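Input.
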Amino acid sequence: MIGLIGLNYEMNLMINDWSQSAVILDTKGLWLGDGEVCIQAVEVSNVGKLIVLGGSRLEGEVVISGAKNAALPILAATILNGESCIIRNIPSLTDIKVMTEVLQSLGAKIEEVESHGLEIDSSQINSGDVSEALMRKMRASSLVMGPLLGRFKKAKVSFPGGCAIGSRPIDLHIKGLKMLGADIKEEYGYIVANADRLVGTEIHLDYPSVGATENIMMAAVFAEGDTTIKNAAQEPEVVDLQNFLNQMGALIHGAGTAEVMIQGVKKLHNVEYDVMPDRIEAGTYMVGATLTKGDVILKNVMYEHIESIVAKLSEIGAKIVFDSDKCNLRIIGPGTFAPFDLKTLPYPGFPTDMQAQMMVLATLGEGTSIITETIFENRFQHVPELRRMGAEIKLEGSTAVVRGKGRLSGTFVSSTDLRAGAALVLAGLVADGATIVEEIHHIERGYESFQEKLVKLGARIEIIRD
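Output.
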């Protein structure tokens, strides 16, 4: 019994023992089962690919990593104290690497401590320019603007990059910082901020932006007097940032509600802190277990962070049980999937970062599901890829109408963004034959050891690089 495990630059095929019959034709195709050509071989680019063989049931235990979207603002916030911090439970991801490079470019000294820990000494940081090349790699790099302005009263950063999932304007960040007293100009692709002093005030956000809420919180830590952010983002990652800042000596309360209050202080101090678990990673594995009709135990979760995901998967038919302290859960996938309606909303609503994964479930449901995206206008880029796999999806503006067909077929698909990439891997787990997911650097931005964790749960996945 043989199966595909590798495809190198010269388009040679290597084989190894997998429980799926296969016949190698030549460098142009792979026959699986009784004889349909399901994969056409192509050159492998240096960004990497995942080959996913369908038909495996996910079973076992998986430990959820620290949350990327909590770790990034916390790392940026280390600029503020001008001393040393130890941050633990940091996931090993390319986005984290970019943020550490941003901090090092500003003068920070960073050392690894233990497993998934970093010691960050910000005493030598200055308010110099942040490299445009680094800023364009990741949108969250804009989070250094608030702490630089708060500590040094000046900052110069270029406009950030990141996933192309839609407009994520930085104007809310700029508006809030201006209201604190900063003079901000746009010069040749850079945002240049200066202030003689920052003074607390009341800031009403037009939209509950997570990044704007976090940037304003960090800038306001050293502002004179009190700052109130109204219509603030309520995401758990904002609460985690508040907790970290408070442990350093800040005076902030209200995170997790629509109104956050910051009382300015004069100085912060050293701290050791553990980053919260990643609720989106947890949700992704929960969808994987549901899709494959599996039986998976997730360790290191926080029930209150994933309530909307738990509710929707339970509605579809999954059985979900938490332990007594609600830090671990067991999920058992149903035999069939009920259709569902879903609308993405700011927290505590259903997270936009889980929309693509849920759409894969909808393609296999018994009936028609309606998915409405209200956060990003361009977050249906996975739809053409799922259609290539046989999904029947009709787009009507910000709404996707998904008719469950009960079957997907393996083919070449491209990871257009972080969550779309994860969703396509999950689709490959239940597709007939083999699925090759390209552009996996997107996945590596936000999922630690994604392939390895899935393989430990029983998935048949191989990674290919030059």
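The two ends are 27 Å apart (CA to CA).
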